[in-house]
Amino acid sequence: MRLFSKRHQPPGTPPGTLHRRTAQEAPPSSIHLLDYSKHAVMEFDQPDLNEIGDRLNAASISWLRINGLPDADWMRQFGDLIELHPLVQEDILNGGQRPKLEPYEDQLFLVMNIPELHDGSIEVEQLYLIWHQHYLVTFYTGSEATFEPLLKRVRKAGTRLRSQGLDYLAYSILDLAIDMAFPVLESLGLELEELEERLLDHPDPSILHEVHSMKRVLILLRRAVWPQRDVINQLLRDEEGWLSEPVKPYLRDCYDHTVRIMDLVESYRDASASLHDLYLSNVSLRMNDIMRVLTVIATIFIPLTFIVGVYGMNFDRSASPWNMPELGWPYGYLAVWGLMVAIAGLMLWFFRRKKWL
Amino acid sequence: MRLFSKRHQPPGTPPGTLHRRTAQEAPPSSIHLLDYSKHAVMEFDQPDLNEIGDRLNAASISWLRINGLPDADWMRQFGDLIELHPLVQEDILNGGQRPKLEPYEDQLFLVMNIPELHDGSIEVEQLYLIWHQHYLVTFYTGSEATFEPLLKRVRKAGTRLRSQGLDYLAYSILDLAIDMAFPVLESLGLELEELEERLLDHPDPSILHEVHSMKRVLILLRRAVWPQRDVINQLLRDEEGWLSEPVKPYLRDCYDHTVRIMDLVESYRDASASLHDLYLSNVSLRMNDIMRVLTVIATIFIPLTFIVGVYGMNFDRSASPWNMPELGWPYGYLAVWGLMVAIAGLMLWFFRRKKWL
Amino acid sequence: MRLFSKRHQPPGTPPGTLHRRTAQEAPPSSIHLLDYSKHAVMEFDQPDLNEIGDRLNAASISWLRINGLPDADWMRQFGDLIELHPLVQEDILNGGQRPKLEPYEDQLFLVMNIPELHDGSIEVEQLYLIWHQHYLVTFYTGSEATFEPLLKRVRKAGTRLRSQGLDYLAYSILDLAIDMAFPVLESLGLELEELEERLLDHPDPSILHEVHSMKRVLILLRRAVWPQRDVINQLLRDEEGWLSEPVKPYLRDCYDHTVRIMDLVESYRDASASLHDLYLSNVSLRMNDIMRVLTVIATIFIPLTFIVGVYGMNFDRSASPWNMPELGWPYGYLAVWGLMVAIAGLMLWFFRRKKWL
Amino acid sequence: MRLFSKRHQPPGTPPGTLHRRTAQEAPPSSIHLLDYSKHAVMEFDQPDLNEIGDRLNAASISWLRINGLPDADWMRQFGDLIELHPLVQEDILNGGQRPKLEPYEDQLFLVMNIPELHDGSIEVEQLYLIWHQHYLVTFYTGSEATFEPLLKRVRKAGTRLRSQGLDYLAYSILDLAIDMAFPVLESLGLELEELEERLLDHPDPSILHEVHSMKRVLILLRRAVWPQRDVINQLLRDEEGWLSEPVKPYLRDCYDHTVRIMDLVESYRDASASLHDLYLSNVSLRMNDIMRVLTVIATIFIPLTFIVGVYGMNFDRSASPWNMPELGWPYGYLAVWGLMVAIAGLMLWFFRRKKWL
Amino acid sequence: MRLFSKRHQPPGTPPGTLHRRTAQEAPPSSIHLLDYSKHAVMEFDQPDLNEIGDRLNAASISWLRINGLPDADWMRQFGDLIELHPLVQEDILNGGQRPKLEPYEDQLFLVMNIPELHDGSIEVEQLYLIWHQHYLVTFYTGSEATFEPLLKRVRKAGTRLRSQGLDYLAYSILDLAIDMAFPVLESLGLELEELEERLLDHPDPSILHEVHSMKRVLILLRRAVWPQRDVINQLLRDEEGWLSEPVKPYLRDCYDHTVRIMDLVESYRDASASLHDLYLSNVSLRMNDIMRVLTVIATIFIPLTFIVGVYGMNFDRSASPWNMPELGWPYGYLAVWGLMVAIAGLMLWFFRRKKWL
Fold this sequence. Notes:
5 copies of one chain form a homopentamer.
Chain A: E1 30-36, E2 41-45, H1 49-57, E3 61-67, H2 72-82, H3 86-94, E4 100-103, E5 107-118, E6 121-132, E7 135-140, H4 148-155, H5 160-163, H6 166-179, H7 181-201, H8 206-236, H9 248-310, H10 332-353
Parallel strand pairs in A: 3-7
Antiparallel strand pairs in A: 1-2, 1-3, 4-5, 5-6, 6-7
Helix pairs in contact in A: 6-9, 7-8, 7-9, 8-9, 9-10
């Protein structure tokens, strides 16, 4: 996850200018059309624009699912077909939008961020949802498999999804988009608890870097999911009848999930800041321990070494009786040992009294 | 208390899907039905669904109390019996909800978090309250004894609880749920003050870990009880007549308690952050002390040891009169001692002037 | 001041249950009744309930002043006499309430926190005010002398207090309650400035503990007085005519005082956090100084001591001309001293260039 | 600037009690009356109360300017003359008010804080403005020269000030009061940048104390000017016609200035916090450098000193061939030097690999 | 970027006083007039005031573009020509305004901050936009090339810009002004990521200064762009018909961009604070490492050096058999080596057990 992803056009570009991102950034798209009523389901793979036009206007519920990003030409033609505002076309092709809900004349345009786990690393993918009275169109930059559970429910006759209207389908897509954050948060939560355990068991400097990258992921994740709460809230307060009464409680449940996700992200941020503090405190405590041992050993031996140095001097005892007479004392050596043991003992007693040992 | 508790279903699961949590997570449930009017009390243990249906619709005040979590089948049948919204059924079986109040057609659904003390460790249990014009249903995941004081008051004739309506019972349950936080906070407060005393008396590194886990408990507790204030406030502003006038002051009192609880949690957070700072400051002060002693002893003896080293050199005095003539001086040895005493004295004076001693 | 003061009843206790706090917590109460009009003042000490009932209903302005906490029986009878809501009775006897204003049918119930200085330590006392159209009742847990200045003004004929109505008396009591915080804040401010001076003059570790306890007092004081602003504001916005027009500017002045008090508390918090930082910075600067001196002395003498050690070795010069020939050189000793002086000089130059000296 | 300035009266003092502050706190006042219309300007120095009464009621625009604080007697008589609310009189004599706007029956009462630079130190002075339909009265505790630029504009015929009404004069006074903060902020900004430069060039501990006192000044300045934004905003939203339409844009400009001032204060707070951090980081980096040099020198010479110590032992070689045979080897001395050079080289290589050098 | 830029006039200056900033601060201005309709484009370089007056009143869309700041005389005359409020004239010539929107009688006045990159350093330039029903006037202090892309679009026939009204031109200018922040943020983002990489690879103290100046740039950038969100929002909520319906979605898109910019700035602030922490943690970890090695080497060799010192003493063995008999033992030397090896081994084992190695 990058701090800044280059997804803006040069300042001064006319609004609605369409540039497809490079293939590297966005894989070629695949298009699927799902058309169902209570009794029947039809699926079309890679339909052409005519087919799409026919089906979207039919009475049944239609969901056009575009995976990856289409090229600019297709987008322009498709935009003309369903009268998509040029800014919406540009937003979709440019990517990197904040989650938002924008009402247009007879369409709602929603952008959602979906965090996906790919081999342990987190990617934030974008879902664009165009909601018209008769159909839904979604553009999704992430894995095609994400919508599989929903498709299974549509294909199975007799599910609530089949018997309810288009707004229930829209709710189901939003619900899926939001709930995709839970497995990601679960994996982050496990990682945090593992970090904590490792830190208490045997702290090593690599933990600090992991905590740092954890914090960075949480900064970006927060930025990605925070505005979703407002989007859902805005939709709940809608007064133009996009939502039927029976669907509202479901969307309220969705709203609860966005709040719970933000709660979790905030708790994780608190917890990782707390881990960082704890690690640094631990390091400084250990350093303290080490310093204490150094001090004790050094301060005991430094005076002793001085004493033995004294009796290593070569003053000429024959020159005068004042020159190191101790060297000639019969018990001089023992006396020096006694002195040194006394000094060491005294120091140990002093350190113990000061509680440095 | 875990940072993340796995209580979400895979993204894309149809809303209202019921999975009972494993037996390990949720013990088997016991069901009690309490039915009372001003004059009589009836209690039923483990009633079957028919009985329940009969009693709930009776004119008397009914409280169906389910302890632990029922299995999914029972839930589905019971949900059909009282026309419980599928999302409510799912929320109860999934658990891990934030405190919330949700109005349904002729029912209110409330979720509360109740922190319980079990042998010194804190568990956050959930209370689900379904409030219908004629009855209350509660699901509770914590200890069965929690409601005992309330039951005693119901069983005793002549109490205010017996003479008031269903809303007073609902209030009493919410009041109990909220007040359960006080003993928990009391125990945390005592722990904090004990930590502070230990820190001032004889700080040891284990305190840091205890402060850290205290902080973590407070993060989670805050997340658990913070939204309860909004729930009670929402209920107070209700305009559909769930609350009769005489009960409102009681609920306002409840609201005051939620505010006091949040005040206490915030003060504890401040106090534990302050403890953490104090501990680290203490450690760095002690390290400073130790360093000072090391410096003083080392800097006094290092030059002295150098001097005695000088006169331990073996230059051949016979080779030239310039080779260590001091060794032959009659008072050389005494002079060296004099020099060393002077140096040591000078240094002590310097350190004292610098206020390092 | 304790972080948590045990002032809650066990969860599940019926609301309105009255338990008098132990004598240790609350001294026995004394009761005074003040009854005045523009022309006359009457005072009753320890009146019985009948007297109280008579006077409160009289046309004059009555102020019933209860100091300390009454016992539960008296409270219950008095509550019946003036139709006091059971929750209010419970709140008063339990204590530990947050400042609040609660409207009841024909009474206002206000709780205020009054910080008092007792021999340099701060106690937060509680004032309960029951405001009825015809009388005021106050319960106060603090010193009886607190209201003396107000009583003097009542007893003196011709003061504004005597000529205005009951609301002016209520304002005067609230004003007194709020202004009691100023002497406390003044003493804290002086203490803070004294701490700062001591810290700049001769910092010693005890300052850190004093800053810590100052921070704790400020946490608790903030919790105690913060809600008073809302209480006064709520009263100002009252639409039921409790306040007459001429009294409103006075109460607005009161509101200003609550804001100024909060400003002061916040500034003190900032200032004490800043003191803590400054102290720690000072300590680490001093440690740095000490380390520098140690380093300079040690790094100068360590190589010198090595050199004198070399010429203290006892290699047998007679065994080979390669064994320590320096010892036999006529100017060997002087050369060694020259070498050592050169090394010491070089090092001093290096340290000075690095600005470590 | 003090944290707490004693400007409160003892709790329980009747509102409106007038005590003049001591002469030390408030110099004796001087009174000036300015009376102008489009065509004429009249100025009176030290007018008596009769004169004041006459002029204020005249049709021309009158501005009564009181510098310093009057004594309590004069205040009481003046208050009676213009029917000034007793609380306003008390506020002016007591001083230390927060900036505020208070509407009275036919007067507005405004309090503004004006920071003034006196020989490099900042004093917060107070301006009290009484705004009546026919006149303005100001009390100002600061330097008399502050209003000079404004007076010049009044005295000059043909200025906009002369042709506009009383509200334009009021705006001009407020504008002057607010803009007085800019020179103060400029001087603080220069000081901050100078501190930063000194810190990067040659950091010394005195900087820390200067940063600390800078932070304290900013805390107090923020407290002093923050509420002015609200005062101007309140005045802008006035619905009683104090402001004529053409003056409103000017006051909006004033409002912008208050916001810019707060922006600057906040930026300075951020910048000084950042300086504090940078200084501490610098100190710890330097300490790190010093430690590294100490370590390298000590760890290289400690083993070497040990080795030369070994060959300074006096074991009796004649007692046994096992006693220090090295001393008798022909190349023993050279071998020891070789060993020592090898050890030192190895250590240097190790330190370089570890990037400690 | 300076913390404080001297752009205020002395307090008390009459509002609307025009002083041109010095030539150093503001280069001489160039004036361009663009006049277009759907079918034709006319451009005038350095038109005189008469020409300007004629063209602005014509039916076509006119955009008067002033680069740099005009002198005070020209400003006054131009102000008279288009009836520009004196405060607006002063704001433009003084500079240093916060972004704001001010409605005047028949003009809107907008101030925007445009960050520009000049050789890697960031300058915040100001754009003043006067929006009248018939024309736009812009004053811009930055590079003339900034508006080039927009001019190209106007010159090209058939673009949306040509066919839409004046509000679309105003939107395009605002859009350009806001989008200028993206390249700046991109360059800051790259710098941040480069800093992070360098920090992890080979941290050196210069990084700290770069992080510090990065933080300072972000403080100033935040102050510069934060109020732009409010300006655009205020414009969106306009009820006087400045914006036609089709332009509103475009401006909403603009609003989204301001929010994204603020999001990025906040993330960068978090990220740079986190870098600072990481750097300091790294430094303290390295110091810890160094201390550990010092401790181990010193504590191993200090006792050994003491031992060899003991046997370097010169006690006279002939004086008594108690004087250093070890020196005469046949295996004394070997025994001492054995003792020293044992001590070193014991210490290494102790350090390893303590996990200090």
